[in-house]
Automatic annotation (TrEMBL):
One of its GO terms (cellular component) is membrane. Pfam families: His_kinase. InterPro entries: Bact_2-comp_sensor_kinase, HATPase_C_sf, Sig_transdc_His_kin_internal. The chain crosses the membrane at residues 12-34, 40-61, 73-99, 119-139. It comes from Caulobacter sp. 73W. The lineage of its organism: Bacteria, Pseudomonadati, Pseudomonadota, Alphaproteobacteria, Caulobacterales. It comes from the Bacteria. One of its GO terms (molecular function) is phosphorelay sensor kinase activity. PANTHER family: SENSOR HISTIDINE KINASE YPDA. This is Histidine kinase. Keywords: Kinase, Membrane, Transferase, Transmembrane, Transmembrane helix. The keyword Kinase applies. The keyword Kinase applies. Residues 159-239 form the Signal transduction histidine kinase internal region domain.
Length: 361
């Protein structure tokens, strides 16, 4: 897409007006210095001198910008010097006209005009203006680069959040389809159908979420209830679930599916033995939201810091920076993950999720 540039660069015009005002003042002082009575410098002459100086300087700026965009800084400076001489030559007869026709002392002006309007005297103001425009161009480019960098960082952060979210979903889908396959092989067709319906409900809910935005903690917990209901359908007698969500934290804002990889890891390392247990809890400590996922660990398993935990840590860093953290809390036959993040409460706006989970808490 081609970027359309404004017809008038308002920033450059403002800089030009300031510089022209300074040059105009210096010209006035110079005129008085060569013997021109101050009374000649009335409004019509002021408007004519100021206007022509502004127009010529802006034309010079446009030529410099065109050369700079196409050939670089060196060409911009060369064109600036060349156009300064051209503008000085064009401005010379205008100044002469003003001095000749707008004074009551033509003999004084005629005797001093040559000294006042020598070509180098006319070129100097435009060289001054050109230097100011080059400095303005540097400043404008620095600001533009800073804005582009900030925008690139914002887009990169959004892309990172999207990538982390979509790294999670295929893993979950793979685990669930494996569970459905096992049920079908065991000829538990009704259970397989129920699991597929829960899976469809889960993905229908997750597809409505924007991973770049936060959702109420109650909604996040319900999504995890749905996932755990799918796992419980396969391991009815082996998996115990406990969820502790205080009512005053239901509206706490958290990134969508933040807990999903932690719950998946908990299921992975918990199942396969007696006394499988997963607990999800939320609390506030020192005005900070603390989320914890604890699960039992089979003695033959060694929980580590795999892809799931790394994804969550990277997502917290991308979303909150140093304000959030992920800590692991291993113990004898148990493994815990503690998330700390800023506490932001909002009024409940989303309708409650209508899912049948069979999980109390």
């Amino acid at each position: 897409m081609k970027i359309r540039r404004p017809i008038i660069d308002r920033g450059a015009l403002a800089v030009i007006l300031v510089m022209v005002a300074v040059v105009d003042l210096l010209i006035t002082i110079r005129a008085i210095g060569v013997g021109v009575p101050p009374k000649w410098w009335h409004l019509p002459a002021e408007i004519l001198a100021f206007g022509t100086l502004t127009i010529l300087t802006y034309l010079m700026y446009m030529a410099m910008e065109a050369a700079g965009r196409r050939y670089g800084l060196a060409a911009k400076i060369i064109v600036g010097i060349a156009t300064a001489f051209a503008a000085g030559v064009l401005h010379l007869p205008i100044i002469a006209f003003i001095f000749w026709h707008m004074t009551d002392h033509p003999r004084v002006i005629w005797s001093q005009l040559y000294d006042f309007t020598r070509i180098y005297t006319m070129v100097i103001p435009f060289l001054f203006n050109g230097a100011g425009l080059v400095a303005y161009g540097f400043y404008r480019d620095v600001i533009a680069r800073e804005r582009q960098l900030a925008e690139a960082q914002r887009l990169a952060q959004e892309a990172q959040l999207l990538a982390l979210r979509y790294q999670i979903n295929p893993h979950f889908l793979f685990n669930t389809l494996n569970a459905v396959s096992t049920l079908v092989l065991d000829r538990r067709n009704q259970a397989a159908e129920a699991m597929l319906l829960r899976l469809a409900a889960f993905f229908r809910l997750t597809l409505t979420l924007d991973p770049r935005q936060a959702i109420p903690l109650a909604r996040e917990i319900e999504l995890q209830r749905t996932y755990l209901a799918i796992e419980q359908a396969r391991f009815t007698d082996q998996l115990e679930i406990a969820i502790d969500l205080p009512p005053d934290l239901e509206t706490a804002q958290v990134p969508a599916l933040l807990l999903q990889p932690l719950v998946e890891n908990a299921v992975k390392h918990t199942l396969g033995g007696d006394g499988a247990y997963i607990a999800i809890s939320a609390r506030v400590e020192a005005d900070v939201l603390v989320l914890e996922v604890v699960n039992t660990v089979q003695r033959w398993q060694e929980p580590g810091t795999g892809v799931g935990l790394r994804n969550v840590a990277e997502r917290l860093a991308a979303e909150y920076g140093d304000e959030a953290a992920l800590d692991i809390n291993p113990g004898d036959g148990r493994f815990g993950v503690i998330l700390t993040l800023p506490l932001h409460l909002a009024s409940p706006t989303a309708a409650p999720l209508k899912v049948v989970t069979g999980i109390s808490g």
